[in-house]
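Quarterly update from the structural biology core.
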Amino acid sequence: MLDLNTIKQAYQRVSGVVHRTPFTHAPILSKLSGYEVYLKKENLQRTGAFKLRGAFNKIAVLVEKGQKGGVVAASAGNHAQGVAYAANYFSIEATIVMPESTPLTKVLGVKEFGANVILHGSNYDEAYAYAVTFGKENNYTFVHPFTDDEVMAGQATVALEMFEEVEDLDALVVPVGGGGLISGMAVASKALHPACKIIGVSSAGAPALKQSYDAKNPIDTLSVRTIADGIAVRDTSPITLAYILENVETFESVCEDEIASAILFLLEKQKVLVEGAGAVGVAALLHNKIDLPKGSKVGIVLSGGNIDVTMLSLIIEKGLMKSARKMKLQVLLVDKPGALHAFTKILTDIGANIVHIGYDRTSIDLEFGDAHVSVSLETKGEEHQALIRQKLKESGFSFSEGH
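Predicted structure, tokenized:
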């Protein structure tokens, strides 16, 4: 069973290898929420996520027991990098099975640590099933990302570090996928500071553990779909659910837009880059999912920072559109000399910066003598965009807006 003694032993094993990541006060989030908010920046961990802690502890225990054969793991990325790093540290061969949709940055991250990568299945659970079979066929030890006491003990060291920095925390806000991180942290917290509330946050697109928590029974889902790929777990582990039901007071979920806005907020306001899974705690705070007395000291785990650059650019682009800092227009012009200049002069006069422009006179839905101009503009908020619409209408331009 997972207990404080096991967790302290794990801390001794990992402390010389993992970074003691910053646990710092977040003044902007504190002012917005009315709480004293502290961020545990596991996105700055070696390998870019907390998962190294559990993987290293598990493999260190195997080595202590004299088991130096190969290891196999299934992971969407962060656990994979943790296992690969730990196996490389102990000179053990590692094979990682990853879903076929895994971002390239995570695949390359695993390979850089010397592990073999097999891409199999459309989600974590299909990769997991294949990895278990692979392990049995090749006599490799399977390293589970969450349903394992040594792994959970390693993840729990996050809580020990947080309490060493801020002893009187009133609540811990923890991302939840399979439940290994919150199970370990909750056991540590209840042993050290029983009054501290544990708040789990999952993605609404991966609802298995949230539904199971509400029903008090394990419930599996048919599929998952979320930008928070680090917590995209389809099936519920009865083992982690038992720990969660015993120790977690509140379990919330956040939607995709809320996760994306939290990623953008952290990047822009806190100068911190996190992946979707790492942003769910802040998303819950920003969107009023956390209900605590004002002035409470709240520690939020930013669990990882291994975000795919393509996904990040999409989040930024959509965020700029939603916050009225970018605007897309399709404008109907008479196809004659000077028409385009007259249009762009209006934009120049009101300070709208053109970042992309296209001119189409051949589309079959255009009348002869007409043209479509599509423009992307940098704008300065809702009032500025309203002024752009007003000036174009006053000048007789017909236009539509894109999203």
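The first strand starts at residue 23 and ends at 25.
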